[in-house]
C-alpha cells in the first residue's frame, strides 16, 4: 500500500470507529444505562479494540514510510 492508500484507510476506519462508538452511546442513552457503564462498554468492545489495532498498525506503517522518505538509507 502506498501512502495515499494508508491515509484513506486510516480515515475510513477512524470514521467507522467513531460512528460505532456514538451508536453504542446513543443506544445506551435510550436504554437509560448510566454514562460510566456505557463508556465501559465502548472501551471493552471487541470490534472497537480491533479497529484501534488497525489504526495503530496503519500509523506505524505511515511512520515507517516517513522515516524511509527522510532517510533513504533506512
What would you note in describing this structure?
The protein has 74 residues and is mainly α. The protein has one domain (3-65). The protein is 85% helix and 0% strand. Helix 1 runs antiparallel to helix 2 and helix 1 (3-30) runs antiparallel to helix 3. The longest helix has 28 residues, at 3-30. The two termini are 18 Å apart.
Helices and strands, with pairings:
Blueprint: H1 3-30, H2 35-44, H3 46-70
What tags apply to this protein structure?
74 residues
- How many helices in DSSP terms? 3
Tell me the number of structural domains: 1
Order of helices and strands: HHH
The helix content, as a percent range, equals over 70%
- Alpha carbon gap, first and last residue: 18 Å
Q: On the 0-100 scale, what is the average pLDDT? A: 93
Beta-strand segment tally: 0
Q: Tell me the radius of gyration.
A: 17 Å
Tell me the major beta sheet. Answer: none
Structural class estimated from helices and strands? mainly alpha
Short summary of the structure?
With 74 residues, this protein is mostly helical.
Amino acid at each position: 500500500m502506498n501512502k495515499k492508500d494508508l491515509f484513506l484507510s486510516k480515515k475510513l476506519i477512524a470514521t467507522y470507529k467513531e460512528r460505532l462508538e456514538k451508536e453504542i452511546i446513543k443506544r445506551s442513552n435510550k436504554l437509560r444505562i448510566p454514562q460510566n457503564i456505557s463508556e465501559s462498554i465502548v472501551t471493552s468492545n471487541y470490534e472497537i479494540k480491533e479497529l484501534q489495532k488497525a489504526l495503530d498498525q496503519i500509523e506505524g506503517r505511515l511512520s515507517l514510510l516517513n522515516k524511509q522518505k527522510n532517510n533513504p538509507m533506512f
